């Protein structure tokens, strides 16, 4: 059953690589919202620029709010990376792209206390000849940290469908084998009956069975 997810992943990688060769396309994909304790969790924050040909200075601010608490700054990108003193000190890694459309971060070795709401604020100042407009956008990520990874519902459905498909193919092959066996058996029986009937004819009748040839 592990072959199906690997096949899907391989196909996705091929499509991503092919798309990368064809054109640089930005897609705003939502972040994962569940992490397993002790693993690294990438908080995805993508803000596509509508005018890629225009240069812009980008400022990124990351905030964390625990359940029932207030927003506290944990990370900032303002030409350089800056990590604020917090519970995440030494556990945040910048994962943004060079064009600053992907401004994601990764929380290393997540704990159960890291559950909460993460806010990604993006501020862009576009550099036009006449004026320099500012554009802001935000992304909220409700992260839940669990002790163990649960069974993915999609993978369960995929496995069930694979079992059903295997059972169906097995039954179809059995039916085809029985059908072919019966067909071959009937053909052999008919051939044996014809041979038996021919042998049962007297020899002089066999000579009379010859078809006369007209001159």
Polypeptide structure, described:
Helices cover 34% and strands 27% of the residues. The protein has 215 residues and is α+β, with helices and mostly antiparallel strands. The chain has a six-stranded mixed sheet with strand order 1-9-8-3-4-5, with no helix packed on it. A three-stranded antiparallel sheet has the order 2-7-6, with no helix packed on it.
Q: Return the structural class.
A: alpha+beta
Beta-strand content: 25-35%
Give the overall shape, derived from the CA principal axes.
elongated
Helix content: 25-40%
State the order of secondary-structure elements, H for helix, E for strand. HEEEEEEEEEHH
What kind of oligomer do you see? single chain
> Radius of gyration, rounded?
36 Å
The low-confidence runs, each spanning 5 or more residues with pLDDT under 50, are 1-23
What is the number of E strands?
9
Distance between the termini: 75 Å
For the sheet with most strands, the description reads: 6 strands, mixed
Task: Please report the number of helical segments.
Answer: 3
Spatial arrangement of strands, main beta sheet: 1-9-8-3-4-5
Task: Please tag this protein with its features.
alpha+beta, 3-stranded antiparallel sheet, disordered N terminus
